[in-house]
């Protein structure tokens, strides 16, 4: 029987940490994502996003979010992709962690971004979800660099970056909506990554990697990469749900 995952394999990708479940946002998840965003992400008038998408009237927010999710799927290709991973904690949708790349086969570089509803901020969940996608990128996709950025005043985001071993990588001056911001760029490699003391559990990786045209050779599945850290990721069968929490 044909399933949605068989025609769009990325939907079957699932990353599980001690407290969180990360998986691509499906259409049925969009209402929960909109509700989480509407509940509040940041203080009014102080957007941490390069595109101030939370500043639109409430009736437009859901439509714009749905368009963004559909656009990222439609434009996904091995040459340029962005995965929007919903974050579930104790069965509740609480935010989104994205990871993307351009020309990954040549550059081996990913970029990340995220948001969390305000009511769950300050618990270390932002660090945990970033660590999850970085582990997946380094240990499963074979990435050599992970990059991110934040407004220079965004200490919460930059604090997460520092705690994981990111190094400062210069600043730029950019127009973020109507505001001019000094943007701090940060960069992480497998050698500087401060790995968590937990293991990442991964489901659906093989099909996702094939879809993105990341080969086993590129991903470095050999002993040298996997034995480099005692917290390396663990393979799981797509049908093995043992130990998976209900959500972020």
TrEMBL record:
<keyword id="KW-0012">Acyltransferase</keyword>
<protein>
    <submittedName>
        <fullName>N-acetyltransferase</fullName>
    </submittedName>
</protein>
<dbReference type="InterPro" id="IPR016181">
    <property type="entry name" value="Acyl_CoA_acyltransferase"/>
</dbReference>
<feature type="region of interest" description="Disordered">
    <location>
        <begin position="214"/>
        <end position="248"/>
    </location>
</feature>
<dbReference type="InterPro" id="IPR000182">
    <property type="entry name" value="GNAT_dom"/>
</dbReference>
<keyword id="KW-0808">Transferase</keyword>
<dbReference type="InterPro" id="IPR051531">
    <property type="entry name" value="N-acetyltransferase"/>
</dbReference>
<dbReference type="GO" id="GO:0016747">
    <property type="term" value="F:acyltransferase activity, transferring groups other than amino-acyl groups"/>
</dbReference>
<comment type="similarity">
    <text>Belongs to the acetyltransferase family. RimJ subfamily.</text>
</comment>
<feature type="domain" description="N-acetyltransferase">
    <location>
        <begin position="20"/>
        <end position="190"/>
    </location>
</feature>
<dbReference type="Pfam" id="PF13302">
    <property type="entry name" value="Acetyltransf_3"/>
</dbReference>
